[in-house]
Amino acid sequence: MSSPVPVPTAATASQRAVVIIALACVLALLYFGREVLVPIILALFLSLLMAPWVRIYRRIGFGHTASVLIAVVALVVIVTGVTAIMGTQVVHVARSLPQYEVTIRSKVKSLREETLGRLDVVRGELGKVIDDSGQGSAPAASGSTAPSFLAPPYLTNTAPSAKPSPQATKPPSEPVGLLTRVLTTAWVPVETAGIVLVVLIFVLLEHESLRDRFIRLAGGADLRATTAAINDAGERLSRFFISTFSVNLGVGVAIWLGLTLIGVPSALLWGLLTAALRFVPYIGVWLVAALVALFAAAVAPGWSVLLMTLLLYLAVEIIVSQLIEPFLYGHTTGLTPLAVVVAAIFWSGLWGPVGLLMSTPLTLCLVVAGRHVQALDLLNILLGDTPALTLPQRVYQRALSGDAGEIISEARDFLKRKSFAAYCDAVLLPALQLARIDLANGAISGSQQLSVKQAIVTVVESLDSQESRWTRWRRRTSVLESMTIGQSLRQHREDAMGRFQGPLAVPPGSLVLCMGLGSMADDLSTELLTRILRDLHIDARHISIPDFQAFDAQAHPELTPNAVSMVYIVSTSPIKERDTFDDTVSLVHARIAHACIVGVMFPEPLAAAEVAPPPNTDVNEFVTSLEQAAQQAIARFPDGGAKPAQHNAAI
């Protein structure tokens, strides 16, 4: 039943060393080769944006080469136009700054009076208090001393310092110097843009050929997996680029219109900057907001324009991030927020501002590769938004830590979508199976066993709508040390409702008995089934085989004849407990011949194939989950605890 624990070998250690060396080499390549890699990566990402336009032009009737050239020329015209507009706006803002000098000086003076001025007043008052207390009567250290005597130069050996003579330098021509500075500043981005443009053209021209070559290089032997990885990456990146570009463009337009209404000059520049820097995750938009707020404070005499600017950015960002973005693409990029922040720091450290802009798509590519390449699964675990642990693993881990509150919180979220029976089948019982495996392997200590028991008991009682709150405070921890979880939960109900968990004088055919075969897992599964049925307002009782056998040892005159309608016999290990199951079925059929017997046969954990239930003619139905068992009870008791249907009463 338990899987063998892998033993680390020398080969594993050597493989880890190779992985570390390879990772260091990749990082060195990314850093020292950034001058070559950055234009290529930019061209590849731009090709994802341009590929839909190329396909549109081809559908219209243009050839492949003509479609690529039209798309690239349109991109160059748009980028050049936007750059020219931004440059013109920047020059206009720079020229208009001197006229705001008076406003800036008055704002700075006002801020100084409100901050440093009040601090000076407090310091002066504190100094007076200190002087009055006699602590400030010490003589001045240097204020009352006589000035030191300075010897003239002719009495010393020090030569008098000569005045520096101005050197005759010929200043360069002003137009030539200005042109040189402009060309020096603009050469690097122009060079990068030219390389990106050339690479982009060839990538679009060779798009299908590059895809085929990548498939051959990455996984020629497994075309299905490689194609799935490429389609997944292309779909996620295309969705990310298109949705993010559309949202950021809309934010830029909203900021432009809002700042125009507020009265902030050069509103178009700030709208374009907001749209561009919003590609920087989390911090880009607030950097622009801080810059615009400072500019708004400089151009207006009061503080109203500054406050309205900040409120505009705050309102737009809240609406977009909380309403529009989840509606458009639901944050389905596949990255956790922490991964986005860490990726921004990492790629900006490697490639500077360009790396900051490309951090999210680059990291998204790594996550997609981790989902489809087993060797890179670590990237998907660290950076992806998929849970690192399954729901049963999370329940077991938190039970080991004694954190029942978090289990209950997650369970309530689960119960908003599905039933308690489905939660037990999908989460709680598999979590307990993990505990059984560790217990069989001796990997869990006594204190951890007790912690798991306490957590599970607390969770089950908290999720049970029939459990009264005041009875939970009477639970004794020491009881768990000598009982299983199922026995403890059953004992709680007996303490509240009596030895037989309710009266014996009941309407005919209204009782349902739930019987386990004796193991700890059987007891817990039987108790969970009992609570599920009681939540459905069905009078279910949890009994064991010894209870069933010893019931006739005492007289029960109040017992209603034919009170039992159904009997569930629960087995969590159908193969090992086959003989016990058959004996129990025979015992129940001999004592309660008219009852409907349902065998609850849970699948064998870690079994290679599903085992068919043991043939037994006395069993009316077989089910394999608590949810199916609950459906059987609902079909027999459609009105809850009312009398069962007539067609089942004859069974």
UniProtKB/TrEMBL annotation:
Task: Note whether Transport occurs among the keywords.
Answer: yes
Q: Which residues cross the membrane?
A: 12-30, 36-54, 66-87, 186-205, 245-273, 279-298
Subcellular location(s): the record lists: Cell membrane
Which superkingdom, per the lineage? Bacteria
Keywords, ordered alphabetically: Cell membrane, Membrane, Transmembrane, Transmembrane helix, Transport
What topology does the record note for this protein and the membrane?
A: Multi-pass membrane protein
Q: Does the keyword Transmembrane helix apply?
A: yes
Q: Which InterPro entries match?
A: AI-2E-like
Family from the record? Belongs to the autoinducer-2 exporter (AI-2E) (TC 2.A.86) family.
Q: Can you name this protein? A: AI-2E family transporter
Please give the organism.
Dyella kyungheensis
